[in-house]
Design brief:
The complex is a heterodimer of chains A (291) and B (212). With 291 residues, chain A is of the alpha+beta class. Chain A contains ten helices and eight strands. In chain A, strands 1-2-3-4-8-7-6-5 form an eight-stranded antiparallel beta sheet, sandwiched between helices. In chain B, helix 8 packs across helix 9. Classes of the chains: A alpha+beta (291), B mainly alpha (212).
């Protein structure tokens, strides 16, 4: 066997997955080839390194949420036959004449109406151009925040770097924040049990100057807390948004896929938290900051 | 360093699914090896196929650490809990399709790898955008913790499919046949992909300043 053949079989040799004939042939080559023997030694060292990899402890909430979903499955599967018929009815196209499709019409009154609508649209477009630059800035913020939210799901620290690269940011402690902002950020008063503050920045964005704080949960996952003057719906672009009352406070909840973000008014400012699991967590944080 | 699924006892288990299970632990971090023989796992799986919630809990307790550990390295800590939850939800919903021809663990790993890869595709994170790491001083390879951190960084840099094959072999201790089943690839390609994974890891470690 030459080096090329041996290198092709090297993992299988190392993992003892070769036939005895192949194994013998590879072993004979290795005995006389330093290069291949060195590569095999590298595989061994890699295994030794992998042996010591940490095994992160899974958070306890996984089973609870899983059980809720399984309960939901059970409830659906034991639903009455009538219920199933209703489900079918929803999914079945109703009998009868085909749905009339939208199309151009020759009726003069309709043509006049459409012409008027076009004129209104042109007028609205002209008036809107005055706000062009503001909208452009909003779009830019939405794009940067969109990238931030995407990255946050994978790596909150890398996401933070997106904001810090794009905008001017300064790591601060409580006293520096007071000096820069003129108020004491809410996170400076501490976090509820199970959360710890990792870093705090004051970030100057085109829309506002805000405090951004990364907080770690006890299971190692992260949320980001922003404190800012006004509501900032542009941060979340077209993402689905709903309102909810959390701990008696109106909150704007944005669906981030597998996480949510929530914004609520706190004294004279607003707090936005990115990366929360559910509204129960929003309840808890609203209550904590209110206290 | 094969890791076997833990199998703790669960209060409220039905008698059939409790039968033949035993647990022995030697606690040294994850070195605990609550071993489960195939027969007892088969009993629990059979109970799960009948919708036994206590058996589902027992199966979850036995397997969730391995699935979570794999998910952490495939999609990152932030999303690993969600991926783990989806894997088990899918497992319990489709456990009737498990025919027992392969080990249950292999079937579950297949779900876990597929869910992780789908998660990465959905979130367009095929390529790891790692932080720029300063190469270490070549005269010093750091302590154990630093070396492991470098391996984590190197793992995050390789293609997710290569990462999964390396983790299934080196961390979960699957044979080539089991890896082939778990990843739905021919057994003959497992070795060549492991070659690639190991060489790429070695190269990334070298880029990070650590020569194997």
């Amino acid at each position: 066997m030459d080096c090329s053949e041996v290198k092709q079989l090297l993992s299988a040799y190392y993992d003892d997955e070769l036939s005895s004939g192949q194994r013998t042939a590879v072993a004979e080559h290795l005995a006389g080839c330093d290069d291949c023997a060195r590569e095999l030694e590298g595989f061994r060292n890699l295994s030794t390194l992998a042996e010591g990899l940490a095994h992160p402890e899974p958070p306890t909430h996984i089973w609870q949420q899983l059980e809720e979903q399984l309960d939901g499955d059970d409830a659906r599967s034991t639903a009455s036959p009538a219920g199933r018929v209703r489900d079918d009815a929803v999914n079945t196209r109703p009998a009868g004449p085909a749905v009339r499709r939208w199309g151009w019409t020759r009726k003069p009154v309709v043509r006049f109406g459409l012409a008027m609508a076009a004129a209104v649209l042109i007028a609205v477009g002209w008036l809107s151009s005055a706000n062009w630059f503001k909208h452009d800035a909003d779009h830019q913020i939405a794009a940067v925040f969109g990238a931030y939210l995407e990255e946050f799901r994978r790596d909150p620290h890398a996401a933070q770097q997106i904001l810090l690269t794009k905008y001017e940011g300064q790591a601060v402690d409580a006293e520096q924040a007071i000096h820069t902002l003129g108020y004491r950020p809410v996170v400076a008063n501490g976090m509820p049990e199970g959360y710890s503050v990792e870093s705090t920045y004051v970030i100057k964005m085109p829309c506002c100057i805000c405090v951004q704080c990364l907080c770690k949960r006890s299971d190692g996952t992260t949320i980001a807390i922003f404190e800012h003057d006004d509501e900032e719906p542009d941060w979340f672009g077209d993402r689905p948004e709903t309102e909810a009352i959390c701990n008696g406070k109106r909150c704007s909840i944005v669906d981030l896929g597998d996480r949510i973000a929530a914004t609520w008014r706190h004294d004279k400012r607003h707090i936005t938290v990115v990366g929360m699991r559910d509204t129960a967590e929003v309840d808890r944080l609203v209550a904590w900051f209110d206290d | 360093m094969a890791t076997t699924f833990a199998q703790p006892m669960t209060a409220g288990m039905s008698d059939t699914s409790r039968r033949n299970t035993h647990c022995s632990a030697s606690n040294a971090g994850r070195e605990e090896t609550c071993r489960t023989d195939g027969d007892s796992l088969a009993v629990v799986v059979a109970a799960c196929q009948n919708g036994d919630r206590a058996a589902q809990r027992q199966l979850y307790d036995a397997c969730h650490q391995s699935v979570f550990g794999l998910a952490v390295r495939m999609v990152g800590l932030q999303d690993a809990a969600d991926v783990t939850q989806h894997v088990f939800l899918q497992a319990f919903r489709s456990i009737g399709q498990f025919n027992g021809r392969s080990r249950f663990e292999t079937w579950l790993y297949r779900l876990a790898v597929n869910e992780s890869l789908q998660h990465l595709r959905r979130n367009r994170r095929w390529r790891h955008q790692g932080l720029d790491w300063e190469p270490m001083d070549e005269s010093h390879h750091g302590n154990d913790a630093e070396r492991k951190e470098l391996l984590e960084q190197a793992l995050a840099r390789i293609d997710p499919e290569l990462r999964s094959i390396f983790l299934l072999r080196e961390v979960e201790g699957l044979s080539y046949r089991e890896i082939a089943e778990a990843l739905a690839i021919p057994e003959g390609t497992v070795g060549s992909r492991l070659n690639r994974a190991r060489r790429e890891l070695k190269q990334h470690l070298s880029d990070l300043g650590f020569e194997l």
